[in-house]
Amino acid sequence: MSVDRLIEAIDEKQNPTVLGLDPQPDHIPPGILDTFVEERGKTLSALCGAYEAYITALIEAASDIVPAVKLQSACYEALGPEGMEVFRRGIQTARAHGLYVIADAKRGDIGSTSKAYSAAFLGRTEFAGVPLPVFDADALTVNPYLGSDNLNPFLQDCEKYGKMVFVLTKTSNPSAAEVQEQIVEGRPLYEVIADQVSASGRPLAGRYGYLNTGIVAGATQPEAIRQLRALHPELFFLVPGYGAQGGSASGLAAAFDRDGRGAVVNNSRGIGLAWKKTGKSLGDAAREAALAMRDDLRSIQYK
Amino acid sequence: MSVDRLIEAIDEKQNPTVLGLDPQPDHIPPGILDTFVEERGKTLSALCGAYEAYITALIEAASDIVPAVKLQSACYEALGPEGMEVFRRGIQTARAHGLYVIADAKRGDIGSTSKAYSAAFLGRTEFAGVPLPVFDADALTVNPYLGSDNLNPFLQDCEKYGKMVFVLTKTSNPSAAEVQEQIVEGRPLYEVIADQVSASGRPLAGRYGYLNTGIVAGATQPEAIRQLRALHPELFFLVPGYGAQGGSASGLAAAFDRDGRGAVVNNSRGIGLAWKKTGKSLGDAAREAALAMRDDLRSIQYK
Questions:
Q1: Is B79 on the interface with A (CB under 8 A)?
Q2: Can you give the pLDDT at residue A241?
Q3: What pTM was computed for the model?
Q4: Is the complex ipTM higher than 0.90?
Q5: CB-based contact (8 Å) between A302 and chain B?
């Protein structure tokens, strides 16, 4: 079970942090950027080189501290096909460092199309009986708007290849409420979604009582997290929004179970941009920020 | 206004068909596939070569019949970074043939991430003041689950670069109802979404009264199409599900306004797989199917 692997990776590092690898041009230290601009001009290719150097440095700096990384697909897509190659190699680099890899691509479509997305991110593209791996992450974020047709192909690959999904349920952005908190039969839509994720039924719960179908529940909404945890002790949470988006460790307490399990907490800018605030090197600043976040999360009193 | 360009392209061809370019390994005629397998083995790269030859043949066969194409991003992502290069070049080839290009990627995320998706598909990636085009389609499909934070960056690029979006509202798949027909204040969620798309307010309506923010409304749900058209005469519809998914021309009548405008109707398998049914060449079969669909759509009685 993929969720068990994630839980054991967290237990081993005593740290539920996910390092977010979400590069933007202005996130890269000038020293790195300049090298590639000299070589390739102000081009997408120069950014690709810089992004790869940047995320590799972050992985190397934090791989003994964090159990997992999350790559935001959009950042790499914004550099085109070569950016997707950086995304692919970033997943490989992270896995080579023993990290659990979440592809944050928020895909969702009709069944036959989801099958192609699932092949891309979790499974294999089948070609005349030959299964060909593509991006091959450990987990993928999935959008629920198209219902179970969309989810099923991903679940099949979860079973077949030992992967997991996190379905967007309650996101961390300011306008999340516009759709997710619409009231359906007396309760917010995001609770309906959480029920559907839970009822998707397979894969069955793993060693620690969690399903391979988790949900995204933003740190900016502690009350929603509390309610979702109470309703769904079997759902593992991917929690974005810690730090830059305003979520705090105390607000996160409710995401975890009594054993301190049940959630991973993403931090992208707080670690990847620490070099800007501290004046230290990219690696040193990231390492320090990752340790500080680990200690902050360790201070949570689980109930 | 991008929606005006689309409408004028439809008017010129007297045909509201969108040719869907959604390749799968078993869609490709053996003659094309074998050439690339001989050269590259049973690899993703062989599939990339075959996909490019296949979609180029479809574009060449139908470019004087249809006004627009829609590329399903998932099919190309399933071949990895090289597949995304085929996607990129497919967009360029279609534009070189004078076609309006819809990127069907159904993206949706928090604002800062949507900005990167929008740069990838509609706008430009900004690098030290240099705007770099990436996939550069004319229109993009967008998922509404994250609310207006998600939509806004796309709308900004629509204004800046003359593009449009189609927001998933009522999709054509069997499980669409599980989320989209949840009842919110006495009406289905998809109507709430359509209201939000309409209220997003900009860009303003173009020459024909349609906004640059359209919606996806599936052909498999004629009643929903009728209701959405009645509620929102200002929203342009992208209608999937004609043919293979069970939608018919008579069911589509309500999508159009009295002048026969207001919608484009996608067909992927009906045109791209016609060679299998007819025993004719890929190009001849596609051409015949595209002409038959055009005539079918021309038979609609607009009310």
A1: yes
A2: 84
A3: 0.97
A4: yes
A5: no
Positive or negative, the CA dihedral A156, A102, B84, B151 is positive
pLDDT of residue A81: 98
Q: What is the DSSP string of A35-98?
A: HHHHHH-SSHHHHHHHHHHHHHHHHHHHTTT-SEEEEEHHHHHTTHHHHHHHHHHHHHHHHHTT
Mean pLDDT computed over A50-56:
98
The residue in chain A having the minimum alpha-carbon distance to the alpha carbon of residue B71 is A113
Residues of A in contact with B26 (CB under 8 A): none
Q: Does B220 touch chain A (CB under 8 A)?
A: no
* A143 Cβ under 8 Å from any chain B Cβ: yes
**B116 interfacial to chain A (CB closer than 8 Å):** yes
Best B86, B106, B114, B182 residue to mutate vs chain A (most A CBs within 10 Å):
B106
**Domains in chain B and their CATH numbers?**
2-298 (3.20.20.70)
Contact A168 B145 (CB under 8 A): yes
Task: Read off the pLDDT of residues B1-45 as tens digits, 9 standing for 90 and up.
Answer: 899 999 999 999 999 999 999 999 999 999 999 999 999 999 999
3-state DSSP assignment of residue A259: coil
pLDDT value at residue B202: 65
The count of residues in chain A is 303
Active site residue B106: yes
Report the alpha-carbon distance of residue A107 to residue A98 in Å, rounded.
25
d(CA B109, CA B5): 28
Residue B75 amino acid letter = C
Q: What is the pLDDT of residues A233-256, one digit of tens each?
A: 999 999 998 876 666 777 799 999
Angle of helix B44-62 relative to helix B30-40, nearest 10 degrees, comes to 150
Backbone phi and psi for residue B140, each to the nearest 5 degrees, phi listed first = -140, 140
Question: Picking from A22-31, A141-150, A224-233, B244-253, which range would have the lowest pLDDT averaged per residue?
Answer: B244-253
Q: Which of B13, B42, B70, B106 is catalytic?
A: B106
